[in-house]
Amino acid sequence: MTGIYGAYLYNGQTPIALLVAMHSLTVLGPTLIKIGYVMRLLAQHRIRGPETTVGACLQAIAV
């Protein structure tokens, strides 16, 4: 949100380095969120194990 505000909504004068940083945050912010989400999914997969996820899906279909 900071990157979007600073890059597109803030109308004051800012140094060019700060402006470049704000624009890069509009790309890096969502990328870091996605990487964190994938890491969370991998951690959950390791905790449960691969056999429980497939088995749970098959049990849900059978019932």
Question: In terms of topology, how is this protein built?
Answer:
Blueprint: H1 2-9, H2 16-48, H3 50-62
Helix pairs in contact: 1-2
Walkthrough of the structure:
With 63 residues, the protein is mainly alpha-helical. It has one domain (2-62). Helices cover 86% and strands 0% of the residues. The protein is rod-shaped. 0% of the residues are buried. The mean pLDDT is 80.
**Anisotropy-based shape:** rod-shaped
- Output mean pLDDT: 80
* Percentage beta strand: under 5%
Number of strands: 0
Note the total helix count. Answer: 3
C-alpha-based Rg, rounded: 21 Å
Q: What are the segments in which pLDDT stays under 50 over at least 5 consecutive residues? A: none
Tell me the series of helices and strands, N- to C-terminal. HHH
* Structural class estimated from helices and strands: mainly alpha
The major pleated sheet works out as: none
Short description:
This protein has helices at residues 2-9, 16-48, 50-62. It is mostly helical and 63 residues long.
List keywords for this structure.
mainly alpha
